[in-house]
Write a structure and sequence with these properties.
Layout (H helix, E strand, L loop, with lengths): L10 H15 L6 H8 L3 H13 L3 E4 L2 E4 L2 H9 L8 H11 L3 E7 L2 E8 L8 H5 L3 E3 L4 H8 L3 H12 L3 H17 L2 E4 L6 E10 L2 E11 L3 H22 L1
Antiparallel strand pairs: 1-2, 3-4, 3-8, 4-5, 6-7, 7-8
């Protein structure tokens, strides 16, 4: 792929993204000075970006503090069902059927982000990953690997080229595993992100399009956890199929 086609980060885009996320995470809003510290840029540069984002509805200003505006939500409405829509009650039911915690996950650029969770996790330190929607590297999570496997091929090539600049061995391993992930529609992580966690991901679909992933997790102790997750995934897939028919 040409240099033009590679998915390289862009400083201005990164700054805009950081500003929007910082505003989204603070219900009371953030000041330009606080954003400048977050972004690591001069306040004058951040002020210019903030002004543009406020002018286009991505930010709202009140008493000198900026909150996330309605524009991101409107874009999702225009695009249709971009983000998988599974209610909390549905996630809790899926967790009950599977017998494990269930995480709803999407791909955001080069990261996997948990949108919500059903059930109680037996590893308390994992709870903030879903509750605070913390980003995790794609290739270090079962969900990220699944979502990347079902990303359109040209986009996937660009993402892998970018990831290979920093972690070529992990990218090479994923490329070898890619055909099996696509064929089985299942992805696994045996301690990739956390040495104590086994995880298995299955796709969430909107018609033929994979829009997200459901992740089942277990404390990692040995081969028995892999078999337990297999059984949990089978129960979950059967339940989902039954609801569709």
């Amino acid at each position: 792929m040409s240099e033009h086609g590679r998915r390289r980060r862009h400083r201005t885009v990164d700054r805009v993204t950081w500003i929007l996320e910082a505003a989204a995470r603070e219900p009371g809003g953030v000041t330009v000075a606080e954003l400048a510290r977050t972004v690591g840029a001069p306040a004058s540069s951040v002020q210019d970006l903030v002004n543009g984002l406020a002018a286009t509805g991505f930010l709202l200003e009140q008493h000198g503090r900026f909150r996330l505006g309605p524009a991101p939500h409107v874009l999702n409405l225009i695009a249709g069902r971009v983000v998988p829509r599974i209610s909390q009650a549905e996630l809790n039911e899926l967790s009950r059927v599977a017998g494990t915690p269930v995480l709803l996950t999407v791909r955001v650029g080069l990261d996997a982000v948990h949108l919500a969770r059903g059930g109680e996790d037996e590893i308390p330190r994992l709870l903030p990953l879903a509750d605070e929607h913390m980003a995790r590297p794609l290739l270090r999570t079962a969900a990220g690997r699944l979502l990347l496997a079902f990303t359109d091929e040209p986009e996937r090539r660009g993402l892998l080229d970018e990831l290979a600049r920093h972690d070529p061995e992990t990218v090479a391993e994923f490329r070898r595993a890619l055909p099996a992930i696509r064929a089985s529609r299942v992805s696994r992580s045996e301690g990739l992100a956390d040495p104590e966690v086994s995880a298995l991901a299955i796709p969430v679909t909107d018609g033929p399009v994979v829009t997200g992933a459901l992740v089942l997790t277990h404390r990692r102790r040995g081969r028995s956890e892999r078999l337990s997750l297999d059984r949990a995934a089978a129960r979950l897939l059967a339940h989902i199929q039954e609801r569709r028919t």
